[in-house]
Amino acid sequence: MAGELFKGRTAVVTGGARGIGLACAAKIAAGGGRIALWDRDMDRAKQSAASLGDAIAVSVDVTDDKSIAAALVTTETQLAPPDILVASAGITGPNTTVAQYPTDAWKQVIDINLTGVFLSNRAVVDGMVKRGWGRIVNIASVAGKEGNPNASAYSASKAGVIGLTKSLGKELAMTGVLVNCVAPAVVKTELFSQMTEQHIQFMLSKIPMSRFGEVDEIAEMVSWLASPLCTFSTGATFDLSGGRATY
Prior knowledge:
Rossmann fold, globular
């Protein structure tokens, strides 16, 4: 997946300053792509962009459509209109029961993980359709397919991302813009700091391979879905779960 696969392409990666987003950005950059890291942590985003070559850091709040519109203008001005979107920004939220889940925490998780993906997708769609080519890859989770106990907001948000991907993929099926998502099991990133050890061990126990995923493994699948090699898949969900999800 290296070489010139992404030469001449511009990719927006939300939540691209670290974790899965950064690994995906690095994979696309290694294939010759230009990268716009959209993130709210500008210090980290600037450091990450400096390591990628032809890349910029763009400040954004994915829950705010005006902020996203401004980020798109910055990207188009400093790089080019985006051909690729990897929507990776997300949080886990608290680990607690539905009965005890704080309303404000629920809203925050849904706003970032689902509404943020919707707003990011919506922002780039018209331009991609006009140009006749585009690739959108949304980062969902196996939790969106199976539901994790004590993670209701996260599970619901990721199920929503899967539903959004199916809907948008079918809307755009005849346009040259393909929309897919990946559904990883647990991948060891800085998001672990937001989880309890009990919850982490529960999720590990569900994986037949008995290990967590690696960000580079997710990036391999995402980079294929974001590339010209992906030509006959849209609205689909690709599991990366070490055997946990097999359907």
